[in-house]
Amino acid sequence: QVQLVESGGGLVQAGGSLRLSCAASGGISVINDMAWYRQTPGKQRELVARITRTGSTNFGDSVQGRFGISRDNAMNNMSLQMNSLTPEDTGRYYCFANIGIFRKFDYWGQGTQVTVSS
């Protein structure tokens, strides 16, 4: 059973930094795209950053230039480096992974809370 486990969330002051990690485990063949999404109450889940297996990345407009995403294919994990955080970055951050070769499935973690105080 595939599991995605996030870590690294917490409370930080505006202007600060946090690093989130996502570890995938359990019956994994190949992890294709991985991504971070975030959700705040009353809003739809939005893409924060995405990274392909070959390392291509794209970012949400609001985090471009402030966040970085990386992954380790051998270790089946991914990180999100968040810099220059603002209160608008507050939300629950979810790890996403598309896994499989011929049959591909989407998986989500339980999320980790990030709160940025002003």
Distance between the termini: 40 Å
Counted by DSSP, the helix tally is: 0
Structural class: mainly beta
* Rg measurement, Å: 14 Å
Order of helices and strands: EEEEEEEEEEE
Largest sheet: 7 strands, mixed
How helical, in percent, are the residues?
under 10%
Count the beta strands.
11
- The overall pLDDT average reads 96
Give start-end ranges of low-pLDDT stretches: none
Work out the strand percent. over 45%
Overall shape: globular
Short description:
It is built from no helices and 11 strands. It has strands at 3-7, 10-13, 18-25, 31-39, 46-51, 57-59, 67-72, 77-82, 91-99, 105-108, 112-117. Strand 4 (31-39) and strand 5 form a beta hairpin.
What do these coordinates show?
With 118 residues, the protein is mainly beta. The chain is 0% helix and 56% strand. The protein has no helices and 11 strands. The strands form 2 sheets. Strands 2, 4, 5, 6, 9, 10 and 11 form a 7-stranded mixed beta sheet that branches.
Topology:
Elements: E1 3-7, E2 10-13, E3 18-25, E4 31-39, E5 46-51, E6 57-59, E7 67-72, E8 77-82, E9 91-99, E10 105-108, E11 112-117
Question: Main attributes?
Answer:
118 residues; 4-stranded antiparallel β-sheet; mainly beta; 56% strand
